[in-house]
Amino acid sequence: MRKGIGLLRTFQYSGNPSDINGAVAMLQQAVNVASPGYPHLHILLSNLGNALTRRFERTGDISDLAESISVQKRALEVIPAGHGDLPGILINLGGSYARRFEMKGELSDVSGAISAQQRALRIIPQDHAHLPILLTELGATLLLRCAHTGELSDLGDAISVQQRAVDLTPHGHPDLPRQLNNLGASFTRRFEMTDNIFDVNSAISVGQRAVDVTPHGHSDLPGHLTTLGGSFARRFERTGELSDIADAISAQQRAVDSTPQDHANLPIRLNNLGSSYLRRFERTGELTDIDDAISAQNRAVRLIPQGHAHLPSLLSNLGNSLASRFERTGELSDISEAISAHQRAVRLTPQTHTGLLIYLTNLGTSFTTRFNATGELSDIADAISVQQRAVDLAQQDNTNLPTFLTNLGTSYTCRLKVTGELSDMENAIAMRRRALDLTPQGHASLPSVLINLGSAMHYRFTSNGDMGDLKEALTHFKSAALSTSGAPLIRLDAAQRWARTLIEHQPHSNEIILAFDTALSLVALIAGLEQTVRGRYTQLKSMSGLALEAAAAACDLDRPDKALEWLEQGRCLVWNQLNTLRTPFDDLRSHNKDLAESIADTAKQLENVGSSRVESHSGMLLSKKMSLDDEARGHLDLAEEWERLLKKAREIPGFESFLMPMPCSSLMQHLPDSGPIVVINIDGHRCDALALLDGVDEPLHIPLPNFSIEKASAYRTVLASLLQIHGLRVRASDPVTTIDSDTFGRGLKSAPIGKYGEDPPVYDALRGLWTEVVKPILSALGFSRVDQTAREEPPRLWWCPTGPLSFLPLHSAGIYRGPDAECVFDYVVSSYTPTVTAITDRVKHRHSIDTHASGLFLTSQPNAPRASPIPGTTKEVQWIFKRAEESGVRASKLDGDEMPVIVCLDRMKEFSSIHLACHGSQNAAEPLQSRFLFHQGHLELGTILKSNLKNADLAFLSACQTSTGQEALSNEAVHLAAGMLAAGYRRVVGTMWSIGDKPAQQVATTFYEYLFAHRDGTGGSGFDGTMSAYALHHATQQLRRSQDDSERSLLTWIPFVHFGY
């Protein structure tokens, strides 16, 4: 017997099946050989029953439970009346009944468990060592019955007895972890029923303590981690704090990872982990999470025994995840499988079970989702039927009732939009009003409830014109947008609805300003610093046009100042974040050196982790995923620390707006004195230019009524089609040849004249840009055509285009045929900038370049692996290097195999200017992995950004498509030229599309010849890129003049562009 009991104790730590099998076998043998009158037979039977229960918990074999209950009943029959072991036997019997109830869900079992435990409580001495065990077991059983029946008094009794158990158990006692765990589970359950935040905070506190005091490797640890993870998940649902769902997933991952593959509780733990992945997906939209959720929950459903009491819950959760993935991907098989899983969950659930209401409403939601996709009226009828049933069955104090009502109201609204049945409208409003009345202030779901009711009121307003309905709709949208709780994505939706409803019905309302202010501040939260750069770009794809829409509304209201502020705040967000993290904190340092150092250190860490952290993906091993999620949790902690430090800095007088988006008055400071910056906003509603001039307090607003987003898209289509036809995707030896060549190369030919003498489409596009956009701006600015014969230098002008205009060559707009021919080159020297601050920061911080670093480094990489040869780069670099030496410029060059990637980085630190004659490759999905291709590897933009290029001046990117952005992120300047500006270069020469090898050589050599010729002679051997915009203007003019104005020729010189100061 002693050996069997020893194996049982060993199993409690090890979880090893051989230990528990050995214990059962030895104890069974001891019972078999014991005589009927053996005085310790009840002890043998009790230990055997306990071992059988433990083995059931490990294997899920319900026959072990049945046998356990049988032998423990027999123990009760043979134990002498009043024996001191009686309470322990009753405790064990109650535990076995409780386990069987969890498995089968029969109320007679949970009643039997409570009866046995309460009997034990009546007879056990108050100083008995087993009293805490009995109290915690009774509490756990009361919790089980509450979960089935919804009886709140059971829950109060459970917490009372479990708290008493904890109080009676000394620190260090081996039973303390389990008692704390059970108490935490009860607090969580009461929170689910009452929504009292104190309960879930208490659950997390005692649950964390339970995990902390459980020995590492103990077989109870996975269960305690599961309970703690569930508490964090519930609090996330209430508050929306990302740190809570991260902690939930971390705990649940550890639980699954430490649970043996054949353990009976593995399905439950997989289900819980999957549910947390789903919650995070709903918050962040990261597809990996929803795939991981479905994978874990599918596995849970496969592993759990048929007939298990928890099977309906697992099926319903799996259905939720499948439905969520359908809403993201549109794959109809997902929603069909979701409905099937929900229907099965409902069929398997007893009519008296509290979970039935949730399963019904989930089923209804999936029916509604499928109806929205297919229009099948039977689906929406089924949705309303099952959701109405859930509402009818729910008690008034059920914390899920607002959700049931909201979902039912949504289904009524969906049917209304198809059938026009007015009763559906009234029912939808009634359901949503009731849901709002029942939702506590501060609840994470409150913004969603407000949006739903606001949408219903707005719909009724469009039907009946009642201004009261419109007023109420606007009130609800505003309240949701300004809510301090709820997911930022939901609040952004509310802010957009608020703004757009005002624009449609009250276009002169000043609240439009507040609505868009709120929306744009939420964008920064959604694409926050706690995410990787890739994650931020993924989020921004769905909201890239918001700043443009806001700016158009501001122009309607004659508020060009707000238009400028919003365009700066809502565009190029990731580059702006990087710029913020690299801000010198000199002013703050003079007030609080320690705080400034802390902010600088946190900024550096955030920059590094944001660009280098690897994200998990579906199919990854759980151990690897856990490691990456731990890194993500650390990233989140850094972002929270950053916000805490900023808040502290803003408490210092004079620093109230520290690192906040700049107001117009600040943006208008430090403008260049050599020419204006022109921001061009384009939206579906209107097109406007904002000209920023040195010495002027506000932007000059220039409406462009003859231009539209449709025209911009049409011009871009013309250009894209032309480039596609001619294969202009990579720099090659001769994609476009010069005019005196015998062949046109790669199928290009002179532009044909139309049947009636009209120009080809590309000329129409350039003419349209000139007459509808550029010329009106130049006229408003008072610019006149420069007299080229007088060698007069044109003024500079910085273009800052938005939306589809970012892909169009504003710098070459013009009329190129006929007597009225003129173009931008006749008026100004053009540069581009992704943002206004990209220029004003460089004007403000006119740092001098270290004389030891001033110089030019060049490299040619003509034969990079897996790239077409570009032999002209060698000649190009050789000529520039030779002319640099002749001009007395400090210069260095490395060609092809001579240069490892690391050496290039070293040279970039040693020389203020670089010339990269090589292939460039842009990565739209991972912008920081955009790269330059070398013989011995590739140099990624992310690597350059990490380097300390404090003397960076000019980068000439003699590569292909280095300023070509991504359509889905047209307002984020996702290209190499903008990236090099972000890395610290003051000016960058790039290309809008692929360039020919010979034209590239000609432009580069003419460019540098201009710079060498215009050295002032006071810089010694240094190299200065200040005149680079003029140099490129001159070089492209020279190339243009060497050719005709055919379509072929235009494609040769147009792509060269200048970025920066």
UniProtKB/TrEMBL annotation:
InterPro entries: CHAT_dom, TPR-like_helical_dom_sf
Domain CHAT: 765-1060
Lineage: superkingdom: Eukaryota
Record-linked Pfam families: CHAT
Ranges that cross the membrane: none
Protein name: CHAT domain-containing protein
